[in-house]
Amino acid sequence: MNLSLHRTAVSDGCQLTVFPTANDAADAVADHLITTVRRNPKSVLGLATGQTPRRVYKSLVDAFLEGEVSFRDVATFNLDEYCGLAASHPDAFAAFMKRELFGLADFDPAKLNLIDGAAADLAAEAARYATLLHKSGGIDVQLLGLGTNGHIGFNEPGSAPDSHVRIVDLSHETLSANQPGLVELRSVPSQAITLGIADILNAREIIMLATGPAKATAVRRSLREKPSTDCPASLLTSHANIHWYLDSAAASALG
Ligand code: F6R
User: Which residue has a Cα nearest atom 9 of ligand 1?
Assistant: First the structure.
């Protein structure tokens, strides 16, 4: 059954599919990832945290439990991590990944690459992660969510297109957008380590999942306006193989 309202080519390498609901869009993204892993069990996946991919991860776990896919040989790189949080902290993205995905399917812990937000030397940690990424041969499929301000990973507005793994200050908009998702902390850490825009653009394929009305303006700015560092996701239009999965609410300002 094709649940998509419409599928269009925005440009040569850019596909856009709009689904009736957020769950439909997430399920399509899960199918995309499952197909990727079945074709190449040794895929290197770039993964995001946040509210948007939770349903995707649940569908991946369900598919694993049904025996439809194995993640045994998959390698992963997470996009980002809050500074100051050890992997065991409930608000660390490492802990989120364990709760939502890694701990629920047959991933090999040795192949899961995560940033240590509690490293004593965070600049050295960013450099270590950049080296690991380089040595891995790069990301096959990068899953992204979209910030309400257009951020990708934690590349906030103003991030350079040639930016790499680094420590960043989070914007006020991101601090308040992420507040409701906190498990234990009372406020969002003010800094993070993130893959850079160049690192994201180096992925061989990109999947962007954006759902809900709060993302509509960032979606329009990314897809309908001239690429600009003011809206980091608009820089994705230069990528040769990107697929935007939206629900109708996130697509509502596209016109
Ligand atoms: C998370 C990340 C962020 C989120 C974005 C959307 O690893 O890199 O860019 O994807 O902030 O977050 P949600 O999905 O919570 O709206």
Answer: 153
Closest ligand 1 atom to Cα of 174: 11
Examine the residue annotation and report whether 199 is marked as an active-site residue of this protein.
no
> Would residue 125 show up in a list of annotated catalytic residues for this protein?
no
**50 φ/ψ sector (left φ>0, alpha ψ -120 to 50, else beta):** left
CA distance 180 to 68: 34
Over 50: is that where the pLDDT of 3 sits?
no
CA distance 66 to 149: 38
Q: Is residue 32's pLDDT more than 80?
A: yes
pTM: predicted TM-score of the whole model, two decimal places: 0.96
153 in contact with ligand 1, CB cutoff 6 A: yes
Class of domain 10-247: alpha beta
- Mean pLDDT for 66-72 is 98
pLDDT at 52 > cutoff 70: yes
Q: Could you tell me which residue, 2 or 104, shows the higher pLDDT?
A: 104
Establish whether residue 80 lines the binding site of ligand 1, counting it when its CB lies within 6 angstroms of any ligand atom. Answer: yes
Annotated catalytic residue within 27, 32, 89, 149: 149
